[in-house]
Design brief:
Structural class: alpha+beta
Strand content: 25-35%
Distance between the termini: 44 Å
Radius of gyration: 18 Å
Largest sheet: 7 strands, mixed
Shape: globular
Number of domains: 1
């Protein structure tokens, strides 16, 4: 694993970047993707899991996409993950994707979410407003608060502060209320009609660069909220 991987192989990263599908009314899209390329077993630095090559001898490398949004419909700060297992022949051997702090298989058994025309990109649905990933639309429809989290509880979680950034980010009641008030302005009802998302290569950076940038982005967004509401300090 290359922890300080500043010079990314953009061609490789773009080739295997997942094909994400977003709800037609989705208000938020990825702003950065922190990429780590594993060439041997090791821990993810942004998700509580180990990356292992033992399950399949065909695996040559694993590309971890730590996908960052400024916002989830319920909070400021949003990080989801996709792991692409690349075979020695260049094929996609496996895919895993995050789902509300856990992760599931992202590649269907019949490989029907990988097209013949684009065999290196796995298609994944993003939960409207929340961005948990699934290869099956039906799985998203089982989420109990699918339609209420984007409206009734928009902004209710305030600013999320992950353990890995607690030395650089803090929150309080005032901040959380500000975030909630702001995200209420983005409330929507999911249509469950999905549109393919096109990546801009400028979003791909190393994970180290992403983790340095996130606190800056959070502070910027908080300042923008204050301007939006005419709050002067």
């Amino acid at each position: 694993m290359q922890d300080q991987q500043i010079n990314l192989d953009l061609a490789l990263v773009k080739t295997y970047a997942p094909q994400l599908l977003f709800d037609r009314l989705e208000p938020f899209f990825p702003v950065r993707v922190g990429v780590t390329i594993f060439e041997q077993d090791g821990p993810s630095l942004s998700f509580r899991r180990m990356i292992s090559f033992e399950s399949d001898a065909r695996i040559e490398k694993v590309i971890e996409y730590a996908i960052y949004w400024d916002y989830d419909i319920e909070h400021l700060y949003e990080l989801e993950h996709v792991w692409i297992y690349v075979g020695r022949d260049g094929s996609v051997v496996n895919c895993e994707c995050s789902f509300h702090g856990k992760y599931f298989k992202g590649l269907l058994k019949d490989r029907s979410n990988v097209s013949d025309n684009n065999p290196t990109q796995v298609k994944l649905y993003a939960q409207p407003g929340k961005h948990a990933f699934s290869p099956l639309l039906a799985m998203l429809e089982l989420v109990p608060n699918l339609h209420t989290c984007t409206y009734e509880t928009a902004g209710s979680a305030g600013l999320l502060v992950p353990d890995m950034l607690r030395d650089k980010m803090t929150t309080d009641k005032e901040t959380n209320l500000l975030v909630e008030r702001y995200l209420q302005t983005f409330r929507f009802r999911p249509t469950m009609e999905f549109i393919e998302y096109a990546w801009d290569e400028s979003v791909f950076v190393s994970l180290a660069e992403l983790l340095l940038e996130i606190p800056q982005r959070v502070n910027h967004e908080l300042n923008e909220m204050k301007k939006y509401f005419g709050i002067h300090e």
